[in-house]
Design a protein that fits this description.
Number of strands: 20
Strand content: 15-25%
Oligomer: single chain
Largest sheet: 12 strands, mixed
CATH class of the largest domain: Alpha Beta
Strand order of the largest sheet: 4-5-3-6-7-8-9-10-14-13-12-11
Distance between the termini: 40 Å
Structural class: alpha/beta
Shape: globular
CATH architecture of the largest domain: 3-Layer(aba) Sandwich
Number of helices: 12
């Protein structure tokens, strides 16, 4: 894979597009197949469930998951046996009993995710890593069945609720480095022929480059846009400031960062369409998505989402709390009571205009990061892959003190190799250009008032 990446970096644009299209063809086959098309009508029918039917569905799904985990996943067998649980206990388990099971911490997932957290009966599949924005990334195991069912739910509850589908031409701004060089020249996008996907770089957005991004929309006849909320907002803001004419899109689908009201207004103005927000994460153990009425609903067939206060108690409707997720779909690497690290606020009035009886969310708090500014005016909050595959690294934080001076705080284990500082610096400079990078080793990273660690901090005015 490293060799392919090196070769890709020196190829002309048309050959890069060819490689991306081949890669896209592979992933299209992974996501869209028999299981995908069979799941669509099944999960569509779920949207008509009553609250009683949802309770029965979730109870049955939870028991099935726990029996499987206790029987086939060594991590849970050991944990739950130590607490006195037997297999028989899970045959009569209730949703309210979940609070008696221990949390699955992110550190547990990092430590055991590729070993004892895997089912002894797992199907053939692949690991997909998170961005690793605050240090060691998590690795989530996807087999083809899980991937296609998850894709079907995304199709129904994200794309279809926004009035679009997977067959339409889409634009995307995500973490993938389609332009490896920080000083790359236009065009700032690449094209995946097999999925009609135009992939825009999240790392080259600036006042000067924004117009070239719009050319990508026009050239490839993009119908809807998907990606990081902040990156899409930066682009929209540049468009609005310069009055750049853009084609009218059908929808913009945002994720990964908190979408504020001003961000929504700017994006809708720039692309002349409605914005639909969503929340899931690479862990795929729960989906929140926005429908045509602006209702953020939790898809109860993806798992159970507990919203808890600092004392581990359920919050009341109208209040906010920490998300504890139990996913129903991934049997090869079950995530049970997983502390995903984000907060949401429940809506006080749970009635819906859509008539869909799912848990209604007022606000997805998600990640709120500062903006890092490059010397050429580019803006970014995401640093995908900066800390991936660095042995001994526990967590990290990026702090910008001036345009050219970046501090990186590291929390490490004893086996961390200081030569990794050079790797981190090169990766950062491949996104922002030449910088003065200093490293500070700390015992813990500071947390905000709500207990979260900010991956990115800017001290610029």
């Amino acid at each position: 894979m490293k060799l392919i990446t090196k070769i890709y970096a020196i190829l002309p644009v048309f050959l890069q597009n060819t490689l991306i299209s081949i890669y896209g063809f592979y992933w299209k086959k992974q996501r869209l197949g028999n299981k995908f098309y069979k799941a669509i009508p099944t999960y569509k029918q779920h949207e008509k469930f009553s609250k009683k039917q949802w309770h029965e569905y979730q109870t049955t799904a939870l028991r099935k998951l726990l029996i499987h985990a206790f029987t086939n996943v060594p991590y849970y067998k050991e944990k739950y046996s130590a607490l006195g649980y037997t297999l028989q206990d899970f045959t009569t388990f209730e949703i309210s009993d979940l609070k008696n099971l221990p949390y699955l911490e992110k550190e547990d997932l990092r430590k055991f995710g590729t070993t004892t957290l895997l089912s002894t009966k797992k199907e053939k599949g692949n690991f997909i890593a998170s961005s690793g924005s605050t240090g060691t990334p998590t690795k989530i195991y996807f087999n083809k069945t899980f991937h296609q069912i998850w894709s079907a739910i995304y199709e129904l509850r994200v794309r279809n609720w926004a009035g679009v589908n997977h067959k339409m031409a889409r634009g995307m701004i995500g973490g993938r480095r389609v332009l490896p060089n920080a000083n790359a020249k236009a065009p700032f996008y690449r094209y995946n022929y097999f999925e009609k996907q135009t992939y825009f770089s999240a790392y080259h957005l600036s006042e000067k480059t924004a117009v070239n991004y719009v050319k990508g929309l026009q050239k490839n006849k993009v119908e809807y846009l998907v990606g990081y909320a902040m990156s899409i907002y930066f682009w929209a803001d540049f468009i609005n400031q310069q009055n750049i004419k853009t084609p009218k899109l059908k929808a913009v689908l945002t994720s990964s960062e908190k979408l504020t009201a001003p961000m929504r207004i700017a994006i809708e103005k720039a692309f002349q369409c409605k914005v639909y927000d969503a929340y899931s994460g690479v862990e795929a153990c729960g989906l929140i998505s926005e429908n045509e009425y602006g209702e953020l609903l939790f898809s109860a067939d993806t798992g159970i989402m507990e919203i808890l206060n600092e004392n581990g108690k359920d919050v009341a409707f109208g209040e906010s709390g920490e998300v504890i997720a139990t996913g129903f779909l991934n049997y090869d690497q079950p995530l049970i009571r997983y502390r995903i690290g984000d907060n949401v606020q429940l809506t006080k009035d749970q009635t819906t205009k859509s008539g869909v009886n799912m848990l209604k969310i007022e606000t997805i708090v998600g990640r709120i990061e500062d903006v890092i500014l490059g010397k050429d005016g580019r803006k970014m909050v995401r640093f995908h892959g900066l800390f991936i595959n660095l042995e001994g690294l526990k967590s990290a934080q990026i702090i910008q003190h001036s345009i050219e001076n970046i501090e990186i705080k590291l929390v490490v284990h004893t086996n961390f190799n200081k030569k990794s500082e050079t790797i981190i610096t090169k990766r950062l400079e491949s996104q922002l250009g030449k910088l003065n990078v200093t490293f500070t080793y700390v015992t813990n990273l500071p947390r905000t008032k709500n207990g979260k660690i900010k991956a990115v901090i800017s001290n610029l005015h």
